[in-house]
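The following record pairs a protein chain with its ligand, zinc ion.
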Amino acid sequence: MGLLIYADMEGICGIQSWEHTGGSSPLYDEGRRLYTAEVSAAVRGCLAGGARPVIVQDGHGGAYRGAKPFMNWIPDQLEPGAEYVRGWRWGSYVEPLETGECTAIAFVGAHARAGMAHAVLSHTIDADGWHAVSVNGRIIGESAILASIAGSFGVPAIAIAGDMAACDELEDFLGAPIVQAVVKRGMGRYGARMLAPADACRLVEERFRAAVEDRASCPPVVTYTDPVLIRVDLASPDRASRLAELEGVERVEERAVQTSGDTFWAAWRTLWKPS
Ligand SMILES: [Zn+2]
């Protein structure tokens, strides 16, 4: 079984402030180390469970001031034996799903959706610019968006590591138990009770190994009835104006746009162009 891991930074153990996730603070260097270590732990677990290939995408859009996003790992500290996708926009890497190279996905560093109170660095896509993404009337977060993209290719999610709210959110969305590695619990948006990062890495490695070994009991593939309607509620009208310029995206309110397609991926790609 090939496995595609979608990784993000806000749900990594040890990270609970924006300074950890980009910019010029020394905390960003600390965040990069923690992120690299936890992703590597997930890879070790997946390889030990027998997954081949293991491909990981850095889906975090933060960066050093003025630098390009989606390249947060410290490359020479990454676990050998996997392949790593950098410099490619979150929510748009599907090639291994299209070709059948990967038949399962998992999440590392997952965070909860915008507006969740007891959730570390909760947001959807944009830290403050997007209020909500809903699909067929239901508000969903980033992990559910990625699970829905994978579902468009018949691929299920088998494991999630992140803060407790993110793990609960995905399980609630899927409507079935999914293997979880809860590495911290949010106390508001910027506080957390968390494991020691070394313990978190051990937990992620163990749980991801178990998820791969017990692949048969993973949650069902995400499916939708056709047509799939995706609505985005934004913080300001100018944001809606920019999205509404895209072909196939319709403005439905001053601060909201909507698009549709026969699959989630078809609808999603109209408003989220690959980089
Ligand atoms: Zn992120």
